[in-house]
């Protein structure tokens, strides 16, 4: 048997794992490389992209995706999907608006109602999933269709229209607008408040994931739920909590939608759920759970924001945007896989 | 000797499969209770009940004399019962130290942040006590060998088991040196006053450390004996099922082990 000193010596030798390998084995590396490449590409080909004033626009685009990509990434690390995340944003915006408008209440009542509803939808998704044991792909696909129909149907009943009625003349609108839709100007750059929310959510989520017990549980329930339960991790609570976090962020996004544009289109949000998932996957989340990064998901959202506007600024036909996105997804996934293998081989 | 944990007439059915019937057993302080039996005899089912993974469907489990039914493994752990499962191991993509402390994370400071430095230090120390060196505790456990993973799980149970440690075939994947270490740990835990349930197929291992032996067969207890009233040969014979062994040796007597298969001629 080896002596303790021998063991320690061997420990020391291998503990000096090359910094490069350690950095490269981070899940977000692939997305960082992709973000730099795309940034340089548009810097080269799109003149308006070089204009500092457009930073605000690009970040705004990224923030509206990022605010949802962050909780969706957490959920994916926890081993589940939420296909209803896109339409849940619309539901949140609509429910707040319609309640306040229909009953002539202060809009803050609508804001609170919407918060409760959005988090409850998340909790319902989680509960149904655990109750039935069905895959989350199916459960949330169901919720996705249900909410899509409810959005259209309830809006039609309440307003006779496909969009919610304007609420900018109602009590509390000004303060709610300040909280959910304001912007600040720093030099030539106009920053929407969503950018602040996005950065905050990213920081909080990254902290929770890597530095708290709950973060440990999230990785564990996504990696092997059975093993996690066996060592005492509250698997159900963790999963339901993750769905509720998605609900909370859907509420925040929905409130921005409402107070930024005053009305919400009831058909909006369909297809967004995949964009959130794409951002998370570009950021290094595995579809199988147990691995990923919220910082990566935010970089994924940034890539999305840059591409969306870069294509415009470069004068390319925006029809190609989705194609570009699809190629990006495949490339990022391949890069992630390659980088991970290289880093693991050392 | 006081029984920490005792089972009386416990039964468990999975649908129409009666995996356990009328099992009584007690785990005493400072004793190793070995559970032996064939594949499918119900050993893992038994320990899953005691660890809170499955509820039992009949009988009574009592802790310190009062009946309990653990709702979840977390409850069992809170009662000081730590388990190494045969089939439920570790989260593959998580690092070694995160797995080691999973469910029992150390936290410090106002924000209840993970105390990563202490966890890594303790994890490294506990693993090197088991005689395995894992160069980098940040590596995912998926990159460890099966035996190393098993050692992580065992080291974890030994570290966190406050009153009862349950080991379900812990030595099945281990080398001679590590098996020896595990057995030594079992003895150490026993001498420290813990109750140990040790499940194995190997009567030699069992007899080395066991105080009490329970053999399960088709979900029933067929032997429950103290070490004093049992020899190793008798234990091995009981495990193989007495007359079945005689039958087997009779059958095999006809086979000449020397020339079972002719060596293949190179072509
Ligand atoms: N989740 C389950 N659902 C249905 N039947 C099960 C389940 N788990 C175990 N069984 C059945 O219960 C019986 C006992 O299984 P158990 O795993 O307890 O055996 P074991 O003694 O641990 O065997 P081994 O030595 O192979 O580990 C087997 O017949 C098995 O098929
Ligand atoms: Mg078993």
UniProtKB/TrEMBL annotation, chain A:
It is a multi-pass membrane protein. Keywords: Cell inner membrane, Cell membrane, Membrane, Sugar transport, Transmembrane, Transmembrane helix, Transport. CDD domains: TM_PBP1_transp_AraH_like. The chain crosses the membrane at residues 29-46, 58-76, 83-101, 107-130, 137-158, 189-210, 241-262, 274-300, 320-339. It is found in: Cell membrane. Part of the binding-protein-dependent transport system for D-xylose. Probably responsible for the translocation of the substrate across the membrane. PANTHER family: ABC TRANSPORTER PERMEASE PROTEIN YPHD-RELATED-RELATED, XYLOSE TRANSPORT SYSTEM PERMEASE PROTEIN XYLH. This is Xylose transport system permease protein XylH.
TrEMBL record, chain B:
The keyword ATP-binding applies. SUPFAM superfamilies: P-loop containing nucleoside triphosphate hydrolases (SSF52540). One of its GO terms (molecular function) is ATP binding. Residues 5-243 form the ABC transporter domain. The keyword ATP-binding applies. Keywords: ATP-binding, Nucleotide-binding. This is ABC transporter ATP-binding protein.
């Amino acid at each position: 048997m080896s002596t303790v000193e021998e063991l320690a010596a061997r420990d020391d030798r291998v503990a000096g794992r090359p910094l490069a390998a350690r950095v490269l084995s981070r899940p977000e590396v692939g997305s960082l490389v992709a973000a730099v490449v795309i940034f340089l590409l548009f810097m080269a080909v799109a003149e308006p992209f070089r204009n500092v004033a457009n930073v605000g626009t690009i970040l705004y685009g990224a923030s509206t995706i990022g605010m949802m990509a962050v909780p969706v990434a957490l959920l994916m690390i926890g081993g589940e999907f939420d296909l209803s995340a896109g339409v849940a944003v619309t539901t949140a915006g609509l429910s707040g608006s319609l309640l306040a408008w229909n009953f002539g209440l202060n809009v803050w009542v609508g804001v609170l109602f919407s918060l409760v509803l959005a988090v409850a939808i998340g909790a319902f998704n989680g509960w149904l999933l655990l109750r039935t044991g069905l895959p989350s792909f199916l459960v949330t696909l169901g919720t996705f269709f249900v909410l899509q129909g409810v959005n259209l149907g309830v809006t039609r009943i309440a307003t006779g229209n496909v969009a919610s009625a304007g609420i900018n003349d109602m009590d509390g609108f000004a303060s709610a607008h300040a909280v959910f839709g304001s912007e600040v100007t720093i030099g030539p750059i106009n920053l929407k408040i969503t950018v602040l929310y996005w950065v905050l959510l990213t920081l909080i989520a990254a902290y929770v994931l890597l530095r708290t017990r709950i973060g440990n549980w999230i990785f564990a329930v996504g990696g092997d739920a059975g093993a996690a339960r066996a060592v005492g991790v509250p698997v159900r609570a963790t999963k339901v909590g993750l769905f509720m976090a998605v609900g909370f962020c859907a509420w925040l996004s929905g409130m921005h939608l409402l107070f930024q544009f005053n009305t919400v289109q009831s058909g909006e949000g369909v297809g967004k759920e995949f964009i959130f998932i794409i951002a998370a996957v570009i950021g290094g989340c595995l579809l199988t759970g147990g691995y990923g990064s919220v910082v990566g998901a935010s970089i994924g959202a940034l890539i999305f924001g840059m591409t969306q506007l870069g294509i415009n600024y470069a004068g390319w036909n925006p029809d190609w945007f989705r194609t570009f996105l699809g190629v990006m997804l495949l490339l990022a996934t391949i890069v992630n896989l390659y980088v991970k293998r290289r880093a693991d081989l050392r | 000797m006081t029984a920490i944990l005792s089972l009386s007439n416990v039964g468990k059915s999975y649908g129409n499969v009666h995996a356990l019937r009328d099992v009584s057993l007690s785990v005493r302080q400072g004793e190793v209770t070995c559970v032996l039996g064939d594949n499918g005899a119900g050993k893992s089912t038994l320990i899953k009940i005691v660890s809170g993974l499955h509820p039992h469907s009949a009988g009574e489990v009592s802790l310190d004399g009062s009946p309990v039914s653990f709702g979840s493994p977390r409850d069992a752990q809170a009662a000081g019962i730590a388990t190494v499962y045969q089939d439920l191991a570790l989260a593959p993509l998580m690092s070694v130290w995160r797995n080691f402390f999973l469910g029992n994370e150390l936290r410090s400071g106002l924000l209840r942040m993970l105390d990563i430095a202490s966890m890594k230090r303790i994890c490294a120390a506990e693993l090197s006590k088991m005689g395995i060196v894992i160069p980098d505790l940040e590596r995912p456990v998926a990159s460890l060998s099966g035996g190393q993973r098993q050692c992580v799980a065992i080291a974890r149970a030994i570290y966190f088991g406050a009153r009862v440690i349950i080991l379900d075939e812990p030595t099945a994947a281990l080398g001679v040196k590590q098996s020896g270490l595990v057995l030594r740990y079992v003895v150490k835990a026993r001498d420290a006053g813990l109750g140990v349930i040790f499940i194995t197929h190997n009567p030699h291992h069992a007899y080395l450390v066991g105080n009490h032996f329970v053999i399960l067969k088709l979900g029933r207890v067929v032997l429950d004996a103290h070490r004093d009233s049992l020899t190793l040969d008798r234990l091995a014979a009981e495990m193989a099922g007495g007359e079945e062994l005689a039958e087997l040796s009779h059958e095999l007597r006809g086979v000449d082990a020397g020339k079972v298969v002719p060596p293949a001629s190179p072509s």
